[in-house]
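Hi R.,

Here's the input for the magnesium ion complex you asked about:
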Amino acid sequence: MNSSNSISPVNLTDLNTSNLPTHVAIIMDGNGRWAKKHRINRIQGHEKGSEAVREVVQTCREIGIRHLTLYAFSTENWQRPKKEVDALMVLLKRFLKSERKEMHEKNIRMSVIGQIERLPQDVRAELQKVMTLTKKNSALHLHLALSYGARAEIVRMAQVVSQKCKSGQIDPEAIDEQCVAEHLYTHGIPDPDLLIRTSGEMRISNFLLWQIAYTELYVTPTLWPDFGKDEFVHILKDYQSRDRRFGRV
Ligand code: IPE
Ligand code: IPE
Ligand code: MG
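And here is the predicted structure with magnesium ion in place:
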């Protein structure tokens, strides 16, 4: 299908700017397999993966996509070997440090969704720095899903909403879809229009379960470190050819 080698360079002007997804979400998978293919260790695969992150963020900024959510670390990923988890945290910190200035200059705002309290203190401090610096930026809003799991997010929503019912702030009868959405990490963010998963796995892996009810899905066999601008634009064009019916005719 769309292996990175078969993607021909595309012109941004081929895109219909009146039909761009407002929100793109990406499951960035395949760093380990990329490393194996190149006979290097998994950690070097993650390193290469962070370069692809940079390219996709800049491409969204260039095209004019308003929201980009990147699944960078799941609640289940804590179960990986400590060495790999530690290396991922080091890489994350390095990425935040190296990208901070440029993100701000390019008017990109960065936020986080997930259980940030589980992240190491030094990573949290770095995240806080970037979020504070960029909080008034308005071009692209980048949401990093870190220590994120959709089930944990839904459980947390249920706890908060029940507490509010108990204290009389919410009438249980008044709980509707909007109320649920407002108590998720993603409150105020439009649902993703397009979800891309790299490396060919046909699964969601606990990502944005509530929010992707009507999201268009695209799975590419390309391993995340090989994912780049040309393929991204190709996928956007595919998205633009789809008929989103939302259950209607
Ligand atoms: C995605 O790549 C990065 C994270 C989940 C942190 P993987 O590490 O899952 O790569 P594969 O799936 O083993 O190839
Ligand atoms: C999903 O990838 C999580 C991220 C990309 C951060 P995984 O590699 O963890 O998912 P599974 O294990 O293949 O379902
Ligand atoms: Mg994986």
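One thing worth noting: Strands lie at 23-27, 67-74, 108-113, 140-148, 194-197, 216-219.

Cheers,
M.
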